[in-house]
Amino acid sequence: MIKSKKSDKGIFVGLIALSLLFIYPLVLVLVNSFKNKLYILKNPFEIPMGEMFAGLDNYIQGAMQSDFIRAFAVSLTITVLSVVGIVLLTSMTAWYIVRVKSKFTKVMYYLFVFSMIVPFQMVMYPMVYIVGQLNLNNPIGISLVYVGFGAGLSVFMFSGFIKGIPLTIEEAANIDGCNPLQTFFYVVFPILKPTAITVAILNAMWVWNDYLLPYLVLGTKEYKTIPVAIQQAVLGAYGNVNWGAFMAMLVLAIIPIVAFYAACQKHIIKGVISGSVKG
Q1: How far apart are CA 257 and CA 243, in angstroms?
Q2: How far apart are CA 130 and CA 145, in angstroms?
Q3: pLDDT in tens, 122-147
Q4: CATH number for the segment(s) 30-275
Q5: What is the pLDDT of residues 175-195, one digit of tens each?
Q6: Which residue in 88, 52, 76, 108 sits closest to 226, CA to CA?
Q7: What is the DSSP string of 74-90?
Q8: Which helix (H) or strand (E) holds 140?
């Protein structure tokens, strides 16, 4: 019993140390966002004091250079449309695959699973060509692309959870007069809440922080997302970087997704465990 308690304390201390290791880079970015750019590379680990302290100058300069408000609106629009589309469409798809037993649904399921292991670089060039041909190089169009790329993992997680839902619940709804859509939205989807929130969190973090896909599809002119806008704004001539503005914009970019994760994180472990059930 004593050994067990010591082991638990050791694990707790180890987890605290690991947490601090992950949090430290974020703290370093926050601290350096308030420094004059001349001191960021010279004294990166010191607390900004005196002439080293830049106040909110880095934030104001970075926001103006990157047109942060517009970039924020573009990123928010793409993230919301993508996440809503992924959660809604993949949950319906997973429900159909699980409940309708046929060779077609079995092949569909394995195609979704296979899509998780296909590297983005393999489909990058044909994807960009097709997007251009279909005029999808806008926030709504790229949201459809994100739905396609996020479908594999999401269908896999929803399928695992749905396999654990008793079929008798849906049969009772059918007896009460519900059609398939009513059964899904009134009975099945509310039960899927933990997995739906988990899928939303994972995809929101991915879409919000993604740089390569918006850069390839939207370019660097009219519809710049936050990562693209920051990269374009702070990178000067001959490779010079305004590190103060860069750190400040990173902080502003991190805050929304961290707040979203903090508000929903209590559901993520339950959803991941539920979505990993084998059928």
Answers
A1: 22
A2: 11
A3: 888 888 889 889 888 899 999 999 99
A4: 1.10.3720.10
A5: 888 898 999 999 899 988 888
A6: 76
A7: HHHHHHHHHHHHHHHHH
A8: helix 139-162
Alpha-carbon distance of 248 to 253, in angstroms, equals 9
Region 82-87: mean pLDDT is 96
The mean pLDDT of 50-62, rounded to a whole number, is: 84
Domain limits of the chain?
30-275
pLDDT at 275: 47
How high is the pLDDT of residue 88?
A: 95
Contact 31, 47 (CB under 8 A): yes
Place of tokens 């929130």: 197
**Residue 256, amino acid:** P
Spatial contact of 158 and 195, defined as CB atoms under 8 Å apart: yes
Rounded distance between C-alpha atoms, residue 220 and residue 30, angstroms: 27
